[in-house]
Amino acid sequence: MSMNTILSRKKNLWITVLFLVIFLKIFSLSPERVEVFYTSGFYNVFSKMLRFLFGWIPFSIGDILYFTVVCWLLWKLSKNLRLLFKKQLRGKQLFQKVYQVLIGLIFIYLIFNIFWGLNYNRKGIASQLGLSEMTYDTSDLKTLQNILLQKVNASKLSLIHNKKAIYPGNKELFERAENCYNETGKIYPFLQYKVPSVKSSLFGWAGNYLGFTGYYNPFTGEAQVNTTVPKFLQPYITTHEIAHQIGYAKENEANFVGYMAAVNSDDTLFHYSCYLDLFMYANREVYYFDSAYSIQSMKLLLPPVKKDIVEWRQFNLAHVGFMEPAINWMYGKYLKMNEQPKGIRSYNEVISMLIAYYKKYGNI
């Protein structure tokens, strides 16, 4: 094959790739277009296909894929660094390596967006529920915190009195999360969850030190839950990750959809897990405005709830990793690049959605 032919093929490849990148960018500029043609159209069908292909396998194919790719990348990096230090990689060879890396990154970008990433640009759950007002004042925030305080205590009491405080195994947990969405889907058809694929993360031990409790793999359609964290956190983590699966990419939206799935079911275990997490979000927000009020609210929690919070804090303290700040920084940058300008604090934006929902519908 002549050099001119090789250059011509590379040129055509770059033109094709550039065209696809531009097309996706232009397409993503219209949330209405993304909502109708991508999320409700292509993604709705494609994500089910992925879950059908990999969901029946009892372990996470996505985790194995990630592990394999990371090992391969480390091997290639080590190999090329040795060649570079030995000055055996220069000129055209070095250019070729850089070219391959750039092409690889662009292809990953394209696949990521086609498989799932365009959901960051959809109209989302606020639009579906008609939640237009997302601003709130200190009074709204305190009202929300007080309601969540009552919900946390009531759901914990219900678990204790009905002797349902025994936490299920992973299989039952995931099935009960699926049932939460089945019940919620009867009220909100756009939250129906078909072809389930939720699995325990193979890297939960690492996640405890890196700071993640769950994640969605857009390349295999699997939702992974870190099942090594305290049991009372896992139900809400599971409904959060399923929300990502059905197309809610932004973290505040996944938090809110996970909440809707949990509380619209009759599963008190999911109620408690959800309300506890949301109370902690609200309590932290109140602390910024009125620390004394925030501390007083914490004192009003029932002793069994306080015991769970102590366990949660001790777990976090026992798993402080030196890489966690760097991981959080990188993840924050990733969120900002994907329509979430507040970075890690995007999770907390579920509070504004809860307040807007309460103002419109009168309940939480």
Topology:
Elements: H1 3-28, H2 31-54, H3 61-85, H4 92-115, H5 125-129, H6 138-161, H7 170-187, E1 198-200, H8 204-210, E2 214-217, E3 222-225, H9 234-245, H10 251-263, H11 268-289, H12 291-299, H13 303-318, H14 324-337, H15 350-361
Parallel strand pairs: 1-3
Antiparallel strand pairs: 2-3
Helix pairs in contact: 1-4, 6-11, 7-9, 7-10, 9-10, 9-11, 10-11, 10-15, 11-12
Write a structural description.
A three-stranded mixed sheet has the order 1-3-2, with helices on both faces. It is globular. The model has no long low-confidence stretch (mean pLDDT 88). With 364 residues, it is mainly α. The protein has two domains: 3-121, no CATH class; 126-361, no CATH class. The protein starts with a helix and ends with a helix. Helices cover 69% and strands 3% of the residues. The protein has helices spanning 3-28, 31-54, 61-85, 92-115, 125-129, 138-161, 170-187, 204-210, 234-245, 251-263, 268-289, 291-299, 303-318, 324-337, 350-361; strands at residues 198-200, 214-217, 222-225. It has 15 helices and three strands. The longest helix has 26 residues, at 3-28.
Concise overview:
The chain is mainly alpha-helical and 364 residues long. 69% of the residues lie in helices and 3% in strands.
